[in-house]
Each structure stands twice: as structure tokens, then as C-alpha cells.
Amino acid sequence: MATRKKAKSKLRATKSKAPAKKSASKALKSAAKKPAKRAAKTLTKKAVKASARKPAAKSTNGNGVPRPSSMPWGQAGRALNGVRILDFTHVQSGPTCTQLLAFMGADVIKVERPGVGDITRGQLRDVKGADSLYFTMLNGSKRSITIDSKHPQGKEILDRLVRECDVLVENFAPGALDRMGLTFEHIHALNPRMIVASVKGFGPGPYEDCKVYENVAQCAGGAASTTGFREGPPLVTGAQIGDSGTGLHLALGIVAALYQRTHTGRGQKVLCAMQDGVLNLTRVKLRDQQRLTHGPLTEYSQYGEGVPFGETVPRAGNDSGGGQPGWILKCKGYESDPNAYIYFITQAPVWGAICDVIGKPEWKSDPDYATPVARLPRLKQIFDTIEQWTMTKTKFEAMDILNQLDIPCGPILSMQELAHEQSLRATGTVVEVDHPMRGPYLTVGNPIKLSDSIADVRRSPLLGEHTDEVLRDVLRYSEREIEAIKTSGAVSAAEKKEAAAA
Ligand code: COA
Questions:
Q1: What is each CA distance from 131 to 136, 137, 257, 329, 463, in whole angstroms?
Q2: What is the rounded CA–CA span in Å between residue 57 and residue 71?
Q3: Do residues 56 and 49 lie in contact, with contact meaning Cβ atoms separated by under 8 Å?
Q4: How many CB atoms lie within 10 A of CB 372?
Q5: N or C: fewer beta carbons within 10 Å in the chain?
Q6: Whole-prediction pTM
Q7: pLDDT tens by residue, 310-338
Q8: Cα-only R_g, the chain
Q9: pLDDT of amino acid 494
Q10: pLDDT (tens digit, 9 = 90+) per residue, 155-186?
Q11: How far is the CA of 172 from the centre of ligand 1 (A)?
Q12: pLDDT per position as a tens digit, 251-265
């Protein structure tokens, strides 16, 4: 971390060298010829081929369980090889889920509306004519096929896809999938093994028909009422706990359903409501709500400040949620750097070390400071004193000193610092991939590390980039049928217009 400031922006350097952007059709052609550059090149070509659709290990030890693979670690394919996903997701929550499954080896076929695609392709665009980072960072390692789900031929193609896939994932507004004719009953009749996984804003109840975006979920799931400072309004967080958080929950549900299918032979519905997902992530505050009935929340600063508690869990600023008092403290340079801060936890077992390092050894034996209970009413004054010390150090200097003493602390890292953090690049958590329309961009790779399933992080697909490929290779349409499908308007908005004009 110490070398962070010196690290040059590889991204910026490569970006400025990036060739002028190509036309969409040229880019499509060259992208089709050249397979996308893989960020993680750990798999050998042979291993990838071997694991493309079927799991690697075939021989069994007699009870149906494969014998342990003798392939080197990380070269036996990926965890979800053989799983094919019909990805009907858009915006963030659903795409997060399917991208994770793709990183783990699933063949994710993203179905998009012809000519338009996922609405995020065009949202918050930073490079004219290129898919936005919003889209590219949530749709890596997937294939894209365009299908008009309301076109009769489009419906036929979708039915065929349902037969060929293991999981359908969607996060449309309530009822939209049914209106396309893709009811669970219809899907189950076509493919009883199909798992149908959905994100909705709310579960069954008074709000079940509501459309929901990230911040609505943060508010309805209890995060906003417990975030911010006591004297200020509720706050939403930058972490997308409603969208990406629910996508994560859904991915777990899908993997569990896939496993249960190995016993039952049938698929099932998986539903994750964003309100439920946020509440799950905010569960410590529901804990505190119940504790409130038995007395004040002593680890909250307001207890030490003598401010009485009301009937509901208050906003706790930067108080530590885990019962080990903590706060964000200024570091050297805070006057000009908005992120020159450190999170400092006064963990009880290292209290002596804290006293020594900040130059207050007398606190170790002073009855007003020596025990966690004695310290609770004095937290503000204690943190003010610690801050006098942290302000003499940069956040990284403070980190180095405190870590050696086993004092839990963490620098406030800016997005700029994270983008250049070499250790995150080394682990594949931050990955640079190339894109035919925008050049190199950074994305977040798989944050879940499996030792025998190395993440496959590829750039996001262009709109409809794999339409022909999926129609031909997955759905086994002949070339003549593909031509007919194209002129029907079921997969291509532009050709639909041309056909109508002819
Ligand atoms: N071909 C034809 N029509 C398509 C299509 C395709 N390939 N893909 C989508 N559509 C249609 C849908 O059928 C729907 O039409 P209908 O309402 O006439 O039935 C329409 O596009 C729009 O879908 P909808 O989901 O309502 O989009 P929206 O932009 O109005 O709402 C959300 C967006 C996110 C608010 C909403 O989808 C939602 O609440 N989703 C569930 C919660 C969620 O995931 N929220 C987080 C998003 S990050």
C-alpha cells in the first residue's frame, strides 16, 4: 500500500493509447473473430475445452460420486461448468447475480431487447457510442442474444432456450415475465429441471407490485434509518446492498437449488426480495432494536454523551457495530485530502498497546480508563485524544504502526486508491479488460475465491454479439432458419424495419 501514490495509472496510460473507437459493426466482426481477452489466463486451452459443458471428472467410485480429479489445482475447469443460464436480467441486481455465476463457469446467455438492450448500456455513458461502464462492469463473461420476447417467433426461440438451459434468472417488474407468457407453469412444462430465479423489490405483502431501485430497498430494508448521524436525516450508503447485495443472495439460492436438483431431479422457484436482502444485511440493527427494550445501547456514542434513547434504533454515525468501540479519525493531510482518515477500534485486549502508542500509558491503570465499561461514557474524549496522535501520521503510517501492535484499524481508501491497489490487481479482484468500443476498463472480478475454480473474467458482450452463435450452436437452428428468423424481426430491430420497407 505504501507504494500506492507512486503507482502510475496503467489504466490512464493504456486508455490514452487506445485506438479510436471502431464502428459497432466493425467491432462486432473483430470481436467475433478474436475471442475476448481473458484477464485470468490460468486455465490451459485444453482444460477449458474439456470443461466447456460437462463436469471434468467422469469416473466414479461406485456410488455416483466422481473420483478426486488428478488435474493440477485450478485446471479442472470451473465450479459451474455445465450450467447454462437464460439471463433475462437488467440494470444491476440480476446482472450482479448472473455475472458471479459466469465468473464461476456458467454459460450465461443474456437475452436483450433488439436495438435497445439492457437499459444500462446507455446510462451514465462516459464514451460516446460505447456501452456504459454501468453495463460493462456488470455483464462481463456473458454472451448476448437479442430476442423480442413479444414477437411470436421470439417466443418460440425463448421456449427453445428454456429447454436448453438450467436456470432462468430475471428481475423484471412484478408480472412482466408472466405477461411474456413465461409463467412458472409454462416453463416447468417445457423443462421440469429449470430453476426460475427472480429478484423483486418486495416479497408477498402490501408492496409486492411495486417497482424498486437500490435506494428504495435501502430505505425499506432498514439500512437508511440506521445510517447517518443522529442529528441528521436518514442516509443511503454507496455500497449497493439493495441491488448487488440481493444479486448475491440470489446467486446463493440458485446454487442451492442446483444442488437440490441433483437429488430431486426438478427445478424450483427462487425468490429474493430486495427488502429482505437489505434487512438481512442490516440484521445487527434488528438485534439492537430488541436490546433497546432491556436498556440503553451502551456502545453507541450517544450513551456516553448522555443523550437518552427513544423507541427505535438511532443512527449511530461511525460507531462500531460490533460492541468494540470505534470511530473515524483524522490523519495527517486531512485538510486537503477528503480521505485522509483512519477507522480506529479500541479493542479491549489491546487497550494497553493503544495507551502506549498514543502516549497515555497512565490510562492503563487509571480506573476511569482501565476497563471497557469505565471507558464507555468517555469515548468521545478518548477518540479526541487518539486523534491527536493519528493527525501526526498519514493513514498508511498509522496503519503500519497499529498493525504491528495488533490494533484493529483501517485506512479510508478512496476509489482512486483502490483502482491502483496492486494487491487487488494481483488477486483478480480488480481486473483490467479490453473492450472493442472503449478500450481498456477496470472491473471488479470475482470477490469469491475458489482454489479449484479460477474466475473467468472477460469483457461484456456487445448488444446481440452472440445471437447467431447461440441460435446455431445452442438452439441448433440451420443457417436457412437463422436467416428467416432475422428477417422476421424476432431478433433484430434494424432488420425488422428493413424487412417491413422491402
Ligand atoms: N423483448 C420485448 N420486451 C421486453 C424485453 C424483450 N427482450 N425485455 C423486457 N421487455 C419488456 C418487459 O416485458 C416489460 O414490458 P411490460 O411491462 O409491457 O410487460 C418492459 O420491457 C419493462 O420491464 P420492467 O421490468 O417493467 O422495466 P422498467 O424499466 O419499467 O422497471 C425496474 C425497472 C428495475 C424498476 C423493474 O424491473 C423492477 O422493479 N424490477 C424488480 C426489482 C429490481 O430488480 N430492481 C433493481 C434494479 S437494479
A1: 7, 10, 33, 39, 9
A2: 9
A3: no
A4: 15
A5: C
A6: 0.88
A7: 999 999 999 987 778 999 999 999 999 99
A8: 27
A9: 54
A10: 999 999 999 999 999 999 999 999 999 999 99
A11: 4
A12: 999 999 999 999 999
pLDDT at 473 > cutoff 80: yes
Distance between Cα 145 and ligand 1 center (Å): 17
Ligand 1 in reach of 118 Cβ (< 6 A): no
Name the grid cell of 348.
479491549
What number of H helices and E strands is found in the chain?
22, 11
Output the residue whose Cα is nearest ligand 1's atom 10: 113
Query: Closest Cα to atom 30, ligand 1: which residue?
Result: 173
Check if 225 has its Cβ closer than 6 Å to any atom of ligand 1: no
Q: How far is the CA of 407 from the centre of ligand 1 (A)?
A: 48
Give all strands (DSSP E) within 138-245, no chain letters: 143-146, 167-170, 195-200
Nearest by Cα to 111 from 95, 122, 97 = 95
Give the pLDDT score at 323: 77
211 lines ligand 1 (CB under 6 A): yes
CA of 176 to the centre of ligand 1 (A): 7
Q: Look up residue 232 and give its DSSP letter.
A: S
Closest ligand 1 atom, residue 176 Cα: 19
The model's confidence at residue 18, banded by pLDDT at 50, 70 and 90, is very low
Q: How far apart are CA 458 and CA 475, in angstroms?
A: 23
Query: Phi and psi (nearest 5°) for 168?
Result: -110, 125
191, three cell numbers: 423443462
Q: Name beta bridge partners: 26.
A: none
CA 409, CA 346: separation in Å to the nearest integer? 9
Q: How high is the pLDDT of residue 64?
A: 76
- Grid coordinates representing 449 are 475465491
Is residue 91 lining ligand 1, measured as CB closer than 6 Å?
A: yes
For the sheet with 409-411, list strands across it: 326-330, 341-345, 409-411
Assigned C-alpha cell, 401: 504502526
Catalytic residue positions, numbered:
243
- Determine the atom of ligand 1 nearest the C-alpha atom of 88: 8
pLDDT of residue 59: 67
Predicted local distance difference test score (pLDDT) of residue 486: 95
With beta carbons less than 8 A apart as the criterion, state whether 319 and 288 touch.
Answer: no
* Grid cell listed for 496: 425488422
Residue nearest to atom 11 of ligand 1 (CA): 176
Beta-carbon contacts of 400 under 8 Å, excluding residues fewer than 6 positions away, are 2
Q: What is the DSSP letter of 60?
A: B
**205-216 residues labelled b (16+ CB within 10 A) or e (exposed):** eebeeeebebeb
pLDDT digits (tens, 9 = 90+) for 178-221: 999 999 999 999 999 999 999 999 999 999 999 999 999 999 99
